[in-house]
Design goal:
Layout (H helix, E strand, L loop, with lengths): L1 E5 L3 H13 L4 E6 L10 E5 H10 L1 H10 L1 E3 L2 E5 L2 E5 L4 E5 H15 L2 E4 L14 E4 L6 H5 L1 H4 L1 E15 L6 E8 L2 E11 L2 E9 H6 L7 H11 L1 H4 L4 E2 L6 E8 L3 E2 L2 E3 L14 H18 L4 H31 L9 H9 L7 H7 L1 H14 L13 E3 L2 E3 L3 E3 L14 H12 L4 E8 L11 E2 L3 H17 L3 E7 L26 E2 L13 E2 L2 H21 L3 E6 L4 H6 L14 H18 L6 E6 L11 H13 L5 E4 L17 H10 L4 E3 L6 H9 L5 E4 L1 H5 L3 H9 L21
Parallel strand pairs: 1-2, 1-9, 2-8, 5-11, 9-17, 20-21, 20-30, 21-22, 21-23, 23-26, 24-25, 26-27, 27-28, 28-29, 29-30
Antiparallel strand pairs: 3-7, 4-7, 5-6, 10-13, 10-14, 10-15, 11-12, 12-13, 16-17, 18-19
Length: 744
C-alpha cells in the first residue's frame, strides 16, 4: 500500500511507524511544512495510564520517550494568596520537539520517508496514494478546502492564552490565579525537561483588552508576566515560542473521511490544553486508524468507515471533558470568594473525570480535609461527606443535600393520587433523602400531560395528598414537596408506556399556550391564551397552592421548565405573542412571574417556594439562554423564591442537549453565582459520589436524583452505610442498617 501523511505531527508520525512496523513493504511518506525542530509549544503531558497503552504498541519509541520524561505526582494551586496541594496523580511530560524527534527517528529507522519544508494547499501532493492521512493541525488547509464535505465547526472561545516557557524547574502541575486591576490571569504550568517548564498564561478576552496586550509583542508580554508572577517564578525568566495571545478553537467535524482521505488529530478535533489531551488524542487516533486497517481486509474505504465509527465515541467523550474544563477556566473569576481548599477541589473535579470518591483514592488526605471543612461550616462536630451535611432552604431545615426529583407515575385516576403514590413516595421518603417531591401535579384537568397524571384541583385531590404527606411526616425524617404545574401545549397525549407520546384521540382536550404553535408539527395546535385564559390559569395555580398548603406540604415548586405552560412563555421559540406577554425578555417573563408572585402570596410565609426552570434551549441565540435564566432567577428571587431548581431543554423538539453525567450542573452553577441564590442541580447525577462532588465544589446547594431513586429507593441510606455516616433509619429496618455478614 502507498500512504502519504500530510503534516508531521504526532498523529502522522505514530501512525506511520506503527503501519510500517506491521507492513514493511508499504510505501509511506510524511510531508511536513516546517523544518525539524520548528514547532509550537514547549511541553506535552501524558498520564501513566496513557503510557502503558503506548508501551504495548512500540516498545522502542516508548523506551526513548520514557528516558526523556519528567515525572511528577502533585498538583499545586496558588489561589487567594495560599497554596493548596493534591498528590497521587501520576503525570509525565517531555518537550514537544523531543517527542517529534523520537517519533521521526523511529519512523525513519523503520523505512518511512519524512520530507520537511514541503508546502501544500491540498491533497494533490499525495497523487497516487492509496491512503491519504491529513494531520496538518488546527489550521488544516485540507479540511478547509473540503469544508462542504467535512462540515467543520470552529467554536472560538472567550479566553486568550500565550504559551510561554520558563527556566523555573517545577516539581508539580502548577496553577496560579492572580487578580489584578484588569481582571484575573491564570497560569497552567508543568515541567517537561530538566530546567524547563511550560508556563501558559490565560485570561478572558475583556481582561486581555483592559491590560493593553493588543499589539504587544511576545517579548513585551513575557516581560509583563515576569513582573506579575515574580513571587512564583523566583527570579527565573519566561521564554517565548511564537505563541502570542491566541484564542482556542474547539473543533468538531461532521465527517472525518472523504474517499481515501482521513482527518487525524487537531485537523479533526481539538481538546483544550487544560486537560492535556491534544497529543494523547492524536496518538490514539493513530493507533485506532492502524487497528482499523488491520481489522478490515475489504479495502481502504471500509477500514476508514470502521475507524470513524469506532473512534468517534471516545473522541466525543474526551472532548466533552475538555470542553467542561475549558468552560470552567473561562469562568474562574466567579470563584473569587471561595475558600482555597474548596477551590482546589473545585479545580480538581472541574471536568467530571475526577470525582469525590476517585480523588479519595488518589489523595485521601485532601478529601478528608474537604469533608471536615464543609462539615464544620455546616455546624457539625463530626465530619461527614459533603452531601450529608444539613442545609437551610429558606426557613426549612433539611438534614442533607439529597432530593428525590419529581417523576411522573401516570397512575392517578382523574388526577387523584392513590395507593401507588403512597407506596412510591413513602418508600423514597424512608430512603434517607432530605426532601422528596411529588410528580408534576397539575392545577386543572386540561393542565395534565396524560389522563394518568396527578392533579390538585378538588377536595378529593387535597385529601389524597394529605394522606401521603402525613405518612411521610409520621414515619420518616424527610420533608415533602409538591411540584405544581400546567402542561400547556404538551398536554392531551396518550400514556407514554404505550410508546412515544402521541395526541389523544378519545377523551382529548383543547390545550393552551402563549401562541398557537403545536409542540410537534403533527400535533393539534393549542389555543393562544387570551386575557380570560391568563386570569383563569393564574387563579388555578393559586387554588392549587392553597390546597397544597392545607395538605401539609413543606415545600412548593412551581414548574417553569420543560416546555410546559409557564416555560413556553419564556422561550422566543414557543412564545410569538405581540402583546405585553410576548416579544422582549421582560414581556416573556411577565406571565410566569405574575403566577409565581400570586402563588407566593397564597403560600405560607414560613414555607419555601421554589421554581424549576429550563435554563437553556441548547439552541444558542435562537432560543432561551442561560443568560436569560440568570435574569429570570434574579426576578424570582426578588419575588420570594428560596431556590432555583435548574434543568434544561424541553421547550422545543429541535433542542439537542449534550448528554453526559452531571451535564446540567454547569447551568445551575452559573445561576448560583450570577443570581447569588441557592440552586438545586439535576440531570444525570447518578449517585452519592457525584452528589458529594457537586456539593464540595460549591456548584450547587442541593442535588436532585430521579432514576437512581427508581433503581434504589434507599439510595441515601445505602450510601450512608458505605461512607460510615450515622443517619436515621426507620426503626422497622434497623436490623438491615449494616451490610449482612456471611456466617462463619
Amino acid at each position: 500500500m502507498k500512504i502519504t501523511c500530510l503534516g508531521g505531527g504526532p498523529a502522522s508520525l505514530y501512525f506511520a511507524l506503527l503501519r510500517k512496523k506491521a507492513h514493511p513493504r508499504d510505501e509511506i511518506e510524511i510531508l511536513e511544512r516546517n523544518q525539524p525542530g520548528d514547532t509550537f509549544g514547549f511541553g506535552v503531558v501524558f498520564s501513566k495510564e496513557t503510557l502503558g497503552h503506548f508501551r504495548e504498541r512500540d516498545a522502542e519509541s516508548y523506551d526513548a520517550i520514557e528516558r526523556a520524561f519528567a515525572y511528577w505526582d502533585d498538583i499545586e494551586t496558588w489561589f487567594g494568596g495560599r497554596m493548596e496541594r493534591s498528590t497521587g496523580h501520576g503525570f509525565c511530560g517531555l518537550a514537544r520537539v523531543r517527542l517529534l524527534d523520537i517519533l521521526e527517528r523511529r519512523a525513519e529507522e523503520l523505512g518511512v520517508v519524512v520530507r520537511h519544508g514541503v508546502e501544500f494547499d491540498d491533497e494533490t501532493v499525495a497523487a497516487g496514494a492509496d491512503l491519504v492521512v491529513c494531520a496538518d493541525g488546527v489550521n488544516s488547509k485540507i479540511r478547509d478546502k473540503h469544508a462542504a464535505h467535512f462540515e467543520p465547526r470552529l467554536d472560538w472561545r472567550k479566553c486568550r492564552f500565550v504559551w510561554l516557557g520558563t527556566t523555573l524547574p517545577l516539581k508539580a502541575f502548577t496553577f496560579v490565579f492572580e487578580d489584578t486591576p484588569h481582571g484575573l490571569f491564570q497560569v497552567h504550568a508543568y515541567p517537561f525537561e530538566a530546567g524547563r517548564s511550560t508556563w501558559i498564561v490565560e485570561c478572558r478576552d475583556d481582561v486581555w483588552k483592559r491590560a493593553g496586550f493588543d499589539g504587544k509583542s511576545e517579548q513585551e508580554t513575557a516581560a509583563y508576566f515576569e513582573q506579575l508572577f515574580r513571587a512564583r517564578l523566583h527570579g527565573h525568566k519566561l521564554l517565548v515560542n511564537r505563541s502570542n495571545w491566541r484564542a482556542f478553537p474547539t473543533i468538531t467535524c461532521q465527517r472525518w473521511v472523504k474517499d481515501n482521505l482521513v482527518l487525524l488529530g487537531d485537523a479533526a478535533h481539538t481538546a483544550h490544553f487544560s486537560i492535556g489531551s491534544g497529543t494523547k488524542l492524536a496518538m490514539e487516533d493513530a493507533i485506532a486508524l492502524h487497528d482499523a486497517l488491520e481489522a478490515r481486509s475489504d479495502g481502504v474505504a471500509a477500514a476508514l468507515a470502521h475507524y470513524e465509527e469506532r473512534r468517534r465515541p471516545e473522541v466525543a467523550r474526551v472532548q466533552r471533558a475538555a470542553q467542561t474544563s475549558l468552560e470552567w477556566f473561562e469562568n474562574t473569576a466567579r470563584y473569587r470568594g471561595q475558600d482555597p481548599l474548596l477551590f482546589q477541589f473545585n479545580l480538581m473535579s472541574r471536568s467530571k473525570r475526577i470525582t469525590y470518591d476517585n480523588l479519595a483514592k488518589r489523595d485521601p488526605a485532601l478529601v478528608e480535609r474537604v469533608g471536615a471543612f464543609v462539615s464544620a461550616r455546616a455546624g457539625l462536630t463530626k465530619p461527614v461527606p459533603p452531601a450529608f451535611t444539613p442545609f437551610q432552604l429558606g426557613k426549612l431545615a433539611l438534614s442533607n443535600r439529597f432530593v428525590v426529583s419529581p417523576m411522573c407515575q401516570y397512575s392517578a385516576v382523574d388526577g387523584v393520587p392513590n395507593d401507588w403514590h403512597l407506596v412510591h413516595l413513602g418508600a423514597r421518603a424512608q430512603g434517607g433523602a432530605a426532601l422528596v417531591f411529588t410528580e408534576m401535579t397539575n392545577v386543572s384537568p386540561e393542565g395534565r400531560i396524560t389522563p394518568g397524571c396527578a392533579g390538585i384541583w378538588s377536595d378529593a385531590h387535597e385529601h389524597a395528598w394529605r394522606r401521603i404527606v402525613e405518612f411521610a411526616h409520621a414515619h420518616t425524617g424527610a420533608k415533602i414537596g409538591l411540584q405544581l404545574a400546567h402542561a400547556g401545549r404538551k398536554g392531551s397525549v396518550s400514556h407514554p408506556w404505550n410508546g412515544e407520546d402521541v395526541p389523544l384521540t378519545d377523551g382529548a382536550w383543547l390545550t393552551l399556550a402563549p401562541s398557537a404553535i403545536p409542540y410537534r408539527p403533527t400535533w393539534p395546535a393549542p389555543r393562544a391564551m387570551d386575557a380570560a385564559d391568563l386570569a383563569r390559569v393564574r387563579d388555578a395555580f393559586v387554588a392549587g397552592t392553597q390546597r397544597a398548603a392545607r395538605a401539609g406540604f413543606d415545600v412548593l415548586e412551581l414548574h417553569l421548565a420543560h416546555g410546559y405552560l409557564l416555560s413556553s412563555f419564556l422561550s422566543p421559540l414557543s412564545n410569538q405573542r405581540t402583546d405585553a406577554y410576548g416579544g422582549s425578555l421582560a414581556n416573556r417573563m411577565r406571565y410566569p412571574l405574575e403566577v409565581f408572585a400570586a402563588c407566593r402570596a397564597a403560600w405560607p410565609v414560613e414555607r419555601p417556594l421554589i421554581a424549576r426552570i429550563s435554563a437553556d434551549d441548547w439552541l444558542g441565540e435562537r432560543g432561551w439562554r442561560v443568560e436569560d435564566s440568570v435574569v429570570l432567577a434574579r426576578e424570582l428571587k426578588a419575588r420570594g423564591a428560596a431556590a432555583i431548581d435548574v434543568s434544561t431543554a424541553g421547550n422545543v423538539i429541535e433542542s439537542k442537549p449534550i448528554y453526559g453525567r452531571m451535564y446540567q450542573v454547569p447551568f445551575a452553577e452559573q445561576i448560583r453565582y450570577e443570581a447569588e441564590m441557592p440552586v438545586i442541580a439535576v440531570g444525570a447525577i447518578q449517585d452519592a459520589d457525584q452528589a458529594n462532588t457537586v456539593i464540595a465544589a460549591e456548584r450547587a446547594d442541593l442535588v436532585c436524583l430521579a432514576r437512581p431513586h427508581l433503581y434504589d429507593p434507599y439510595l441515601v441510606l445505602h450510601a450512608a452505610a458505605r461512607y460510615g455516616v450515622d443517619v436515621r433509619w426507620p426503626g422497622q429496618y434497623l436490623a438491615g442498617s449494616k451490610p449482612p455478614v456471611a456466617p462463619a
